[in-house]
């Protein structure tokens, strides 16, 4: 299958992959005074503003997690959402930003997309420090069910990679995609239970959430981290199946356009 060939190719070129990840991570804040503190400051400021707007002004409930402060409730969902949105936005321009490499050197082009996603995961791990501090400060208890975050995270990355491959290839051919992706992510945020609990979604609309892998993933994070229980197995299975389909379709589209990348730089 195409996907196994690509995995073998990426493994073969793993040194280039890590070099690109290192370059991406170092270059982003090279001439910044605060450096990597921005990785923490940005989601922290976003969380504080959104917490004020949605918990104090709009008074959005946390429902099943009513004993959880809204700031923690929000941050558990906001961090993985930001990872998804930032990965997709960065990956979208990854081919255009590496025009000189594409036209001069042979290597698996998927490495350009994967390296941007891994770099965003590094940012995510730094920002995770804030959530850990908040959970300690508010005495949020955890148990072994929190280990579910690893398969949930894996499913999220499968979904992210599939979409990233599709949008990266599309953006190289049609530059409007980079502007369209911002609109899509803004609308998608409100269709995903990030700022509100999934419990308050009317029953007649829940089918749309079942078909939205990010809605299932975000809700699964909350169930395991804040609820202390396992995620909904059936919903998570749906998210996995949809994510795998998206990955296969995204990779297929990417590979079908790979031969004309250099002609469209």
Descriptive notes:
By secondary structure, the protein is mainly alpha-helical. The chain has one domain. It is 70% helix and 0% strand. The chain is built from 11 helices and no strands. The chain is globular. The mean pLDDT is 87.
Question: Summarize this, please?
Answer:
The protein has 265 residues and is mostly helical. 70% of the residues lie in helices and 0% in strands.
Summary tags:
11 helices, mainly alpha
Secondary-structure blueprint:
Layout: H1 2-12, H2 14-28, H3 37-57, H4 70-92, H5 99-104, H6 110-137, H7 149-173, H8 177-190, H9 206-210, H10 213-225, H11 233-257
Helix pairs in contact: 2-6, 3-4, 3-6, 4-6, 4-7, 4-8, 4-10, 6-7, 7-10, 7-11, 10-11
State the helicity in percent bands. Answer: over 70%
Number of strands: 0
Question: What is the number of independent domains?
Answer: 1
How far the N terminus sits from the C terminus, by CA atoms, comes to 28 Å
Major β-sheet annotation: none
Structural class: mainly alpha
Uncertain spans, ≥5 residues at pLDDT below 50? Answer: none
Distinct helical segment count: 11
Structural shape? globular
Query: From N to C, what is the helix and strand string?
Result: HHHHHHHHHHH
Q: Which whole number gives the mean pLDDT?
A: 87
**Radius of gyration, taken over Cα atoms and rounded to an integer in Å:** 19 Å
- Percentage beta strand: under 5%
